[in-house]
Amino acid sequence: MYQLFFFLLPIPLPLLSLQIFINNEWHESTSGKKFPTYNPSTLEKICDIEEGDKPDVDNAVEAAKAAFQRGSPWRQMDAPSRGRLLHKLADLLERDRVTLATLETMDTGKPFLQAYFIDLEGCIKTLRYYAGWADKIQGRTIPVDENFVCFTRHEPMGVCGAITPWNFPLLMLVWKMAPALCCGNTLVIKPAEQTPLTSLYIGSLIKEVGFPPGVVNIVPGYGPTAGAAISTHDSIDKIAFTGSTKVGKLIKEAASKSNLKRVTLELGGKNPCIVCADADLDLAVECAHQGVFFNQGQCCTAASRVFVEEQIYPEFVKRSVEFAKKRLVGDPFDARTEQGPQIDQKQFDKILELIESGKKEGAKLECGGLAIEDRGLFIKPTVFSEVTDNMRIAKEEIFGPVQPIMKFKSIEEVIRRANSTEYGLTAAVFTKNLDRALTLASALQSGTNICDSPNAGGKMY
Ligand code: ADP
């Protein structure tokens, strides 16, 4: 009775072309090669896709350059019309929301309800947000000497490359695409090789919406080939990348060795979640749980280092274990499922290897710690207590359903420990004391700090 979504399949495949999208047309790969994409829940192949490589990226860049030429339909389009196209794209995502969420679940293994309510919701809102910005981006006038007029104009960069990861394939695509289009750029996109389906579906919607040919081009393929062709391309003016820190370094290097294109990177995280003794314990336990286990633990922002003040440590661990044991792992199309499979064998093996390292290095395994037998890439929600900062599970990005819980005594100590990481992506703090919340928010060296302090009126960002 819980298999609510089986009737959604099969997908209306005519809408999903599995080819390379250039100039609003579908193409076979220049090399003639294809690559497979798999359903990580069943390990079955979903389909083959045309495999883009450097020649295909070159064709996509030519199309994007032509679409960006002075006098082209895209360059002549006024800003409100660009905004209207983005709104129309959001309308089509709303129309095809079930199909897109189904494809995302098939390709990533994430629970359908999360794909539908979180990923798709985020995509639609992002498109509408940037649609609104399109005609509100203004320059400034600057007072200088009497005989001069000085003003700034915001101009599009030109051809933008976008390389996306597999954990939120559609959302990451939209995060990159919407601002670039809002400002009048053109795009060459390479989706992650594990999860190309929703990106290709977007190609068909781009055409339906009526974006001029060449404004959005999508080249599925592998990182060292198609991805590297983008990062080293001399005619790409800017690149946005989300993925591993290792590849982020390669992208910067490639940008500086080619045309010094601008680079925006969103890379790994080993994010502290600090729970003070005065926190609302129910709230902190649940948020820390969701913070690390959401999306099978495959989030760069995962709360993957939980620091708990010593007075409440045993109780926090006990309740966290209860939560983890109750977490339902299984078929992502089952409405009850909270956790699906990991994305692929490589990630699955890496997570299990890190779990083994935690056991060997002396952390206390409270629950989980194993794969679910006979079920491919599913891993039991795992909680470790008695974790110390020198252990690999406290230092390395696990990207899986593993919660390492550490103990702290004082605020100065936890600030020092939380900041001693090569990553500084996000941090979270739970306390009812406003002074502590503000002290921690300013002391934690990360891009986004989230404090929950009811005395401060709820959430602060
Ligand atoms: P993960 O290890 O989690 O798969 P990656 O950083 O390898 O993360 O992948 C993120 C994205 O970067 C994917 O689209 C992938 O194809 C791409 N990629 C991988 N290697 C390179 C590379 N050398 N140059 C450009 N893109 C790459």
Short description:
The chain has 461 residues and is of the alpha/beta class.
Q: Can you summarize the main beta sheet?
A: 8 strands, mixed
Oligomer: single chain
* Structure summary, number of beta strands: 17
Return the average pLDDT rounded to an integer: 93
Straight-line N-to-C gap? 41 Å
Return Rg in Å. Answer: 23 Å
Low-pLDDT stretches: 1-7, 455-461
How would the global form be characterised?
A: globular
What ions, cofactors and ligands are bound? adenosine-5'-diphosphate
Strand adjacency order, main sheet: 12-13-14-11-10-15-16-17
Beta-strand residue fraction = 15-25%
Category by helix and strand content: alpha/beta
| Number of discrete helical segments | 15
Percentage of helical residues? 40-55%
Family: Belongs to the aldehyde dehydrogenase family.
Signal peptide: 1-17
Active site: 266
Domain Aldehyde dehydrogenase: 26-451
Structural topology:
Elements: E1 20-22, E2 25-27, E3 34-39, E4 44-50, H1 54-68, H2 73-76, H3 79-95, H4 97-108, H5 112-133, E5 159-163, H6 169-182, E6 186-190, H7 197-209, E7 216-218, H8 223-231, E8 238-242, H9 245-257, E9 262-266, E10 272-275, H10 281-293, E11 305-309, H11 313-326, H12 345-360, E12 364-367, E13 382-385, H13 392-395, E14 402-408, H14 411-419, E15 426-430, H15 434-443, E16 448-453, E17 458-460
Parallel strand pairs: 5-6, 5-8, 6-7, 8-9, 10-11, 10-15, 11-14, 13-14, 15-16
Antiparallel strand pairs: 1-2, 3-4, 12-13, 16-17
The protein binds adenosine-5'-diphosphate (ADP).
